[in-house]
Design goal:
This protein has 2 domains: 190 residues, no CATH class; 108 residues, no CATH class. It is 14% helix and 51% strand. It is built from 4 helices and 16 strands. It has a 16-stranded mixed β-sheet that branches. The radius of gyration is 24 Å and the shape is elongated. It starts with a helix and ends in a 9-residue tail after the last strand.
Amino acid sequence: MLGTVLVFVVATAAGLALHLNHPAARRLVGSTLNSALAPVLNGSINLDKVDRIALLSGRVAGMDVTIRDAEGQTVIVARWVSAQIALLPLVRSLIDDGPLLVRLEHVRIDGVDLTLRDDASGVSSLAKTFLPRESPQSQAPSNEQGTPGTGFVVTIDDVSIGHVWAHGSLGSQLMDIELDGLSGCLRVDPDALAGTLRPVAFHARALPIAAGAAVGSVEGVIAFPFAEDQRTTARVSVRARAGDLPVAARATLYGEALVAHIEVPTSPASALSAVVEGLPLLAPVRANIDVSGTLSAVAVKGRVDVGEGHVELAASAKRVELALAVVGLGGHANPR
């Protein structure tokens, strides 16, 4: 997303300088963009096409963008990107000594193909693609208004993407997710990335469950600092359905600290087969599970109601030790 935003900035600035919406001028915009962004990010951004640059209104339309990670692998392909840029703060920042200030009032993208992969160090290459290249300027302190003293500040008031396909792998987990109608807002500066994701429908495949897939919606907020000594904060809420089994979950992350709650409303025992095959249950099931701890050591506690009986759960993610207090399951479980 940051790469696409920077495309808008350079394309519009170059267009204003050229005073001409002509194919040759647009090709020059692309060349200028690629050269200007090369020293800024770990990854690389290529403007494949720009259909129109409206000089007076600050509108850029019909762009195709390809973004590659630091190892040269394609991670994002965005098609038919359009944006409305607030020109006055942009022009002022081009004249002043401070950071490049860009406010995008509206961003529209028809489709995004997102490839997920780990780099040679085992870290998501997508996340590292948009980290600023280390330089003395990147360490400059912020001014009194909180705006970084150098670099850029990009604010997107409203962004919408018609369709996103995210695929590949993170660690050992295969990823194959489609999202429709993604929208939100975003701010990026040399210190951090902060964004809000409004509720968006998803279809996830290649999941490690019996059904193999799930559909639902997700929303959340994130603040991702670029400095290693700062803590990432995030909050996410998910409603999903795997087969006939509905699940609601919410989670909060502060640095390494994680707190989450998972709820399964009363569902027929057969619905659980979408998640785990062969469970010996006959009665309706309901579950409330709490997760707390850190990303490296998670504790799980909860209760699963089966008919008139219930199971108390306690587990550790480091060394799974289930403490089960089974009360009155009786004929609600199939011993076979």
